[in-house]
Amino acid sequence: MVELTLDTNAVSAFFDGQKEVVDRIDLASTLFLPAIVVGEFSYGALKSKNVEVNLQKLKIFTAGCEIRLL
């Protein structure tokens, strides 16, 4: 059982498709995501050129995570 707590850099690397990070995240049985990371990505998505696409990507990703108030 592999549990991972992801920081902003790890989530960015995942979204960028960095193989090592994607592979590691795919192996995890549980993903923890600090609420601040969700906030950072929400802010970035809202300021991006593709707001709806980026918010949807974030929504899909966070659905597989346990959000933590750390």
Can you describe this structure?
With 70 residues, this protein is α/β, with parallel strands linked by helices. It has a single domain (3-68), classed as Rossmann fold (3-Layer(aba) Sandwich). The protein is built from four helices and three strands. The model has no long low-confidence stretch (mean pLDDT 96).
What is the secondary structure topology, with strand pairs?
Elements: E1 3-5, H1 8-15, H2 19-27, E2 30-34, H3 35-47, H4 51-63, E3 66-68
Parallel strand pairs: 1-2, 2-3
Helix pairs in contact: 1-2, 3-4
Major sheet strand order:
1-2-3
> Which structural class do the helices and strands define?
alpha/beta
What is the tally of helical segments? 4
- If you average the pLDDT, what whole number results? 96
Silhouette: globular
- This entry's quaternary arrangement is single chain
Number of strands: 3
The CATH class turns out to be: Alpha Beta
Name the CATH homologous superfamily.
Answer: 5'-nuclease
- Cα-atom Rg, whole angstroms? 12 Å
What is the H/E order?
EHHEHHE
How far the N terminus sits from the C terminus, by CA atoms, comes to 22 Å
The name of the CATH architecture is 3-Layer(aba) Sandwich
Considering DSSP H and I runs of 4 or more, what fraction of the residues is helical?
Answer: 55-70%
Low-confidence stretches: none
| Total domains | 1
Strand content: 15-25%
Largest sheet geometry: 3 strands, parallel
CATH topology: Rossmann fold
